[in-house]
Hints:
Structural class: alpha/beta
Distance between the termini: 45 Å
Number of helices: 12
CATH architecture of the largest domain: Alpha-Beta Barrel
Number of domains: 2
Shape: globular
Order of helices and strands: EEEHHHEHEEEHEHEHEHEHEHEHEEHEEE
Helix content: 25-40%
Number of strands: 18
Bound molecules: (2S,3R,4R)-2,3,4,5-tetrahydroxy-N-oxo-pentanamide, cobalt (II) ion
Amino acid sequence: MKITAAKLIICSPDRNFVTLRIETEEGIYGLGDATLNGRELAVASYLEDHILPCIIGRDPFQTEDIWQYLYRGAYWRRGPVTMSAIAAVDVALWDIKGKALNTPVYNLLGGQSRQGCLVYTHANGADIAEALDSVRKHMDEGYLAVRAQAGVPGLSSSYGVPKAGKSYEPAERGLPSESLWSTERYLNFAPTLFEKLRVELGPDVHLLHDVHHRLTPIEAARLGKSLEPYHLFWIEDPCPAELQESFKLIRQHTTTPVATGEVFNSLWDSHDLIRHQLIDYIRMTIVHGGGITHAKKTADFAALYNVRTGFHGATDLSPITMAAALHFGLAIHNFGIQEHMHHSKLTDEVFPHHYSFDAGYMHPGDAPGLGVDIDEVLAAKHPYQRASLPIARKLDGTLTDW
Ligand code: EZ4
Ligand code: CO
């Protein structure tokens, strides 16, 4: 089999997506997601200008060799732009393999290890009462696991809480907006939110919470300790993770499980976190972490240390990444949970797919390959528009982690 053509489709059906379509001489094509939220065109250029000319004529079954060619062959290693570009190629090739062999991708990764993938969705509210209603609403929809975020009293906006009347999207058209942050107010508030949720909702629902890299390790330790009575499924990204040792301090103080890694792009970003058992869930997902080929190595390494997967799944990850993550999660042994934020109706129309939700679990479907397509005519009606993630400042104006 030979790759004959490869092209990018850059579109914005309510939000931006960069999609790679690889064609073969047999007429079979594969799709890969290359979306890096707020930095979309950098990955598009990396693919268009540097990668696509190199893959024409290669055998699409050679996922390992092509991965090594793109990773080692570039000399420059890692980084979100490089690894998202490699991921797009890798995922498109796995899609082609599945279609060529007439089998869903999960069968190429170990077959079904479970009936479906446990997923969590997002609840939020301007205050505790609204957040409680929002969790209840998702439980009524069938979710067994819900991430809860609420507005912090005294702050005009909070991560994870939408501006009035809008649904929450982690990017906004145009240049970055600014928001304010106070660790002190947040640390006093967060336990009161989860106390209320547990009292009202009982012990069974899995509750999760995203700290979004905003604390220092000792502050995160205090948060984890203060949340112990409410037995969260996890706290996510409690502090920035460039310094992997930071998590030792958190671990010394709390039994609240920890998830991190949605901004990671290679196994090396979590190598120490995993081998010292400093985290419970690894969040690096397929599109930003070098594709299925590298995610498999990362998950297998994590399995040795009892670390499970809890992949990122916000709406900036396209339905192609969602499908890839579900095939992957269905097959590997150390799957933990998958994040699931609904795409807009228009996004779903541009990317028709076979995955589905039922009673708290998602299944990738049994179509050959990934089971996702792209409607290029509809995509063309929604061209790219610049969008940015917000930035955050402390009350005194100091730039901090968003
Ligand atoms: O900030 O997807 O867990 N989910 C998140 C998201 C991320 C965005 C970044 O592109 O943290 O809201
Ligand atoms: Co997050």
